[in-house]
Each structure stands twice: as structure tokens, then as C-alpha cells.
Amino acid sequence: MDIVLNRKGGIPVRDQLVAQIEMRILGGDLPAGERLPSVRALARKLRVHANTISAAYQLLEAKGHVQMRKGAGVYVRTVGAASLAAARDLDEMIALAVEEAARKGFKVAAIRAAVLRWLDSGPPSRLVTVDPSPSMAELLRAEVAPAVSLPVEARALTAIEQAPELLEGALAVSLPYHMAALRRLAPRATVLEVNLEVTAAVPQALKGLSTGAIVLVVSHADTVLPYSRTLLKSLRDDDLLVETRLLSDVRGWRRLLPAVDAVFADSLSAETVGKVRSRGLVPFRLLSDAALVRIAAAARAAPEGEARASAAQRSRKRRTP
Fold it and tell me: Quick one: the chain helix, strand, coil %, rounded to 5?
């Protein structure tokens, strides 16, 4: 596994490791089931502290990319939906989900409460993408909407803080970093966690760029720009010049277009940028196909028959003084 570290660029080594390993997994260079180098072996090879490697592996595990098996090593794992697809019946699917939740530290009472909340909620009437940044929530909405048949809204976290009822009857979708705050603000809401996973088109396009190439990233969301800069710099060290502009800064990105070798544009930017320049344009998404499949499945989830009746009875009992 080839990893190039830039020790002078100001980007933490841990973040460079996570970005490069993550992109190799998403791009298929590291297939599911492959064992990664041990912490000590990779630390020796890269000449970094073992704690740095361990922290990177733990973050990759938290994002769902690898599985750390005690005494056996670190392995690339399949995305959650794939492991559930291998289940032979409903009981096995539930067992896999409960086992995964327990492995991540959730207590039995919390798992049970979450299951009851999903059953009691019934089919969602709409989806709501939630993020502290309104523009990021809008970008997530743009990626989620084509994958589901329900209406999709975008809400800032501050809006939920002021009016938690905005999530009533809805399925909320948010990034891992904001789940704790979202559950605190709306404890009865049904919330689905998704990870940022830039599509494989990005590393593939980077491979074709020569040393010294100029890359422009255009995004609707302000939070995507520092993330993309860190990612691109870690993938290609310092041999690329990376410029970032918000889509709203039309004058800024249009002025740079004639000079750049490639333009990476998100789902809300690609069409606008493409009207000015299509050559070297690389559209990218922040949610993987697997994440969209999970969201679509969650949007369809609804208790049926006796399960629906039992859920309604439990809900009435809890409301009865």
C-alpha cells in the first residue's frame, strides 16, 4: 500500500493517512476483506509514531471503512448494506444490526429504544437533511432527492434547535459529526447517519494530471472547500496547485477557469460550471451509491400488519398517564 506523506504542508499526518486509505477503498484498490498493514509495520514504513497509525485506523473504522479484529488485524470491510444483504432471514438481519450497534458501544437499552422509535414512527412523510451549514444541508438534499420518492427538505441545525417539531414524521439524514447534537435537540426523531465518501471519479481524474497542474474545486457548500483541499493535497502531495471557490463567487471561479487543468464541481455546481467550461470538468458526489441505497431503504421502512398495530398500542400506553 503506497502512501505519500507531506510533512511540510500543515495537514496532520493522521488526516493524510485517512484520506489516502479511504480513497483507495472507495476506488477499489483495496477490496473488501483485504488486510491492511499492522500498526507497527506501517509506522516503521512511514517513519511515524504508532499512535498516529492507530488513530487513523480508528477513524477509518468509525467511518465504516475498516474493521479492527482483536488479535487478527485490520481489514477492509464492506459497506453496511452489503453485510445485511448476506443475511438469510429477518432474524439474522436484525442480529447483524444489533451486533454492529453493540460493537460501536451502544447499550441494550439505547438499541431497544431506537428500534421502538423506528417502529412507532411509521413510514416517513418526507426526508430532512440536517447540517450546521445551511449550504451543506442543501447539497446533501440535492444528492439524496433523486434516490427517494419522498419530498426532501434541507434544514440548518439551528432551525431544529429552535423548532424540533420540524422533524416530526420525517426521516432526518445527517453526518456523524452532528448526530449527538441532533439527537439531543430532537430525541424522538428518526435519524439516519451517513458518511462523506467522495466518489471514485476524483482519484481517477487526479491520476491523469501532470506534476504542477492547477486544480479548481467549486462547491455550493462552504464546508466542502477545506475538506476538498485536504483530500487533494494528501492524494497528490505538493505537486498540484489547488484553488477552491464557492459557487456563489461567480467572478472568482470564472476568472480561474482559463488557467486551470481540471475543475472538480459538486452536484449543485457542475451544471453551472459546465455551461462555461466543460473541458476537464469532473463532477463529484459526497454520498456513495451504497449510502444512497441505505437512505432509500430507510425511507421505505414501515411497520406492517400486526407490527404496525402493536407499535401503535405501545405508543398509546406510553402517552397514557
Answer: 50, 15, 30
- 244 and 207 assigned to the same domain: yes
- Cα–Cα distance measured from residue 167 to residue 183, given in angstroms and rounded to the nearest whole number: 11
In the chain, the amino acid numbered 75 is Y
Domain residues for the domain of 40 are 13-77
pTM metric for this prediction: 0.62
User: For 84-112, what is the mean pLDDT?
Assistant: 69
> Is 114 inside a domain boundary?
yes
89 vs 21 pLDDT, higher one: 21
Q: What is the DSSP string of 192-236?
A: EE------THHHHHHHTPPTTEEEEEEESSTTHHHHHHHHHHHHH
Q: What percent of the chain has pLDDT over 70?
A: 83
Contacts of 214 (CB under 8 A, 6+ apart): 240, 241, 243, 259, 260, 261
DSSP assignment of 44-111 equals HHHT--HHHHHHHHHHHHHTTSEEEETTTEEEE---HHHHHHT-SSHHHHHHHHHHHHHHTT--HHHH
Burial of 319 (0-12, 13-18, 19+ CB in 10 A): exposed
Residues 177 and 101 in one domain: yes
Beta strands in 220-299 (DSSP E): 240-246, 262-265, 281-283
How much is the pLDDT for 190?
84
* Residue 54 domain-assigned (yes or no): yes
Positive or negative, the CA dihedral 293, 298, 299, 300 is: positive
In a domain, 194, yes or no: no
CA nearest to 218, candidates 262, 159, 178 = 262
Name residue 126's beta-bridge partners.
170
Q: pLDDT, tens digit, for every residue of 13-34?
A: 898 898 888 878 876 778 888 8
Do residues 87 and 145 both lie within one domain? yes
The Cα–Cα gap between 130 and 228 comes to 20
Max CA pair span of the chain: 70
Number of other residues whose CB lies within 10 A of the CB of residue 297: 13
